[in-house]
Specification:
With 237 residues, the protein is mostly helical. The chain has 10 helices and 2 strands, in the order αααββααααααα. Strands 1-2 form a two-stranded antiparallel ribbon.
Length: 237
């Protein structure tokens, strides 16, 4: 297959598959590789990018996972009818403040609603799970340990307490990106202590079966967490 423009040779030794993935994704989005069109062969892509076939294989696997291409036995990779529209993926949030703020806004939408619904539907077992994870965070705080895993589990337990499988699955899916925004808090004891008090208010509201209080406590927690990182969700910064 003839390509419309030469592909760049990649010099950086780190995340080559990511670079190949991004380039191919961009060319699919631009229409250079149209729906139904066949990608160049693995060998051709490796030669034109100046990388190994293993790197290309990993990049194509990501394109497939994100619904940009489908592979056909013995025929190669073909662009799907609606590239990328059958999957959702959060962009890396580790760098730009704007991206981190967007993840916080998504957390605000998802976690506040989950807390409200959990207060309506929680069972005795749900409360046991929430208290267990709250105690794990408390122990981490008292021992100067990293409580991110317990923090993640606490929020997953809230999602589980909604008894809505779609909400639970959605929060599980987004968990790794949400987790990234919790690391700075647990890296500072003062910030972690403030966050833990907020977790306690969310727990108390869910225990009381008070949806309005749960919503308010979760909203305050997310806005305060953003402010602790120098972000203002009110102003969209």
């Amino acid at each position: 297959m003839t390509m419309a423009a030469p592909l760049p040779r990649l010099a950086r030794p780190v995340s080559l598959s990511e670079e190949v993935f991004r380039t191919l994704e961009g060319r699919i989005r631009s229409g250079e590789f149209p729906p139904g069109g066949r990608l160049p062969t693995e060998k051709q892509l490796a030669e034109r990018f100046g990388v190994s076939r293993a790197v290309v294989r990993e990049a194509v696997s990501r394109l497939k996972a994100d619904a940009y291409v489908e592979t056909r036995q013995g025929a190669g990779a073909y662009v799907t009818a609606q590239p990328g529209n059958q999957s959702f993926r959060l962009e890396a949030a580790g760098g730009a403040r704007g991206e981190i703020a967007q993840v916080f806004e998504l957390r605000l939408l998802a976690e506040v609603g989950a807390a409200e619904l959990a207060a309506r539907r929680r069972t005795g077992k749900d409360l046991q799970d929430l208290r267990r994870e709250w105690r794990r965070m408390e122990a981490a705080l008292q021992g100067g340990a990293d409580g991110v895993a317990a923090d993640d589990a606490f929020h997953r337990a809230i999602a589980a307490a909604t008894h809505n499988e779609q909400i639970h699955r959605f929060m599980e899916f987004l968990g790794s990106r949400f987790s990234e925004t919790r690391h700075p808090t647990w890296a500072d004891a003062t910030l972690a202590r403030a966050a833990q008090k907020e977790h306690g208010r969310i727990l108390a509201a869910i225990e009381a079966g008070d949806p309005r209080a749960a919503r308010a406590a979760a909203t305050a927690h997310l806005r305060n967490a953003a402010r602790r990182l120098g972000l203002d969700l009110e102003g969209g910064k």
